[in-house]
């Protein structure tokens, strides 16, 4: 966890447990939660889920670097980002991006930017588990 305004984790914990760590804020009118859910197909083939792995020494550092940059660029927001590793079944969330802002438009913009940066730079890999 990087600061009081940004919380990051990469663990085997479920999204539903982790998202409780950011309490509702009375000074923020928007509380957006993006759940990246595992779809039932990968490259046109049916899967049972995805096995996520990560470069442990670098992934959380990079996630916190993103959080520091985002809180500097978009002051006033609160954010919690969690990526689940290990096997994540179809229909379950593998990533949570929760953002609290004064107004919803800003919250959507910030959430989208968190996701873009995470996908581009955080060393987390997915291996689909195909059905026979």
Structural features, described:
The structure is a single chain. By secondary structure, the chain is an alpha+beta fold. It is built from three helices and eight strands. The strands form two sheets. The protein has a four-stranded mixed sheet, covered by helices on one side. Strands 3, 4, 6 and 8 form a four-stranded antiparallel sheet that branches. Strand 3 and strand 4 form a beta hairpin.
Q: Give the distance, in angstroms, between the N- and C-terminal Cα atoms.
A: 40 Å
Strand order of the largest sheet: 1-5-7-2
Percent in strands:
35-45%
Please tell me how large the radius of gyration is. 15 Å
CATH architecture: Alpha-Beta Complex
Main sheet summary: 4 strands, mixed
Output the CATH topology: Aldehyde Oxidoreductase, domain 3
Pairing-aware structural class of the strands and helices?
Answer: alpha+beta
User: What is the fourth-level CATH superfamily?
Assistant: Molybdopterin biosynthesis MoaE subunit
User: Helix amount, in percent?
Assistant: 25-40%
The gross shape turns out to be globular
The stretches of 5 or more residues where confidence is low (pLDDT under 50) are none
Number of domains: 1
Question: If helices are DSSP runs of H or I spanning 4 or more residues, what is the number of helices?
Answer: 3
Number of strands: 8
Order of helices and strands: EHEEEHEEEHE
């Amino acid at each position: 966890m990087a600061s009081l305004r940004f919380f990051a984790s990469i663990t085997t914990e479920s999204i539903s447990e982790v998202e409780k760590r950011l309490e509702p804020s009375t000074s923020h009118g928007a509380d957006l939660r993006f759940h990246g859910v595992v779809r039932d197909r990968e490259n046109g083939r049916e899967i049972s889920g995805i096995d996520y792995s990560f470069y442990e020494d670098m992934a959380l550092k990079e996630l916190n670097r993103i959080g520091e940059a985002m809180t500097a660029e978009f002051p006033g927001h609160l954010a919690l980002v969690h990526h689940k590793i290990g096997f994540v079944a179809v229909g379950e969330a593998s990533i949570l991006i929760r953002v609290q802002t004064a107004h919803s438009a800003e919250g959507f913009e910030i959430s989208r930017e968190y996701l873009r940066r995470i996908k581009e730079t955080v060393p987390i890999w997915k291996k689909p588990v195909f059905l026979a």
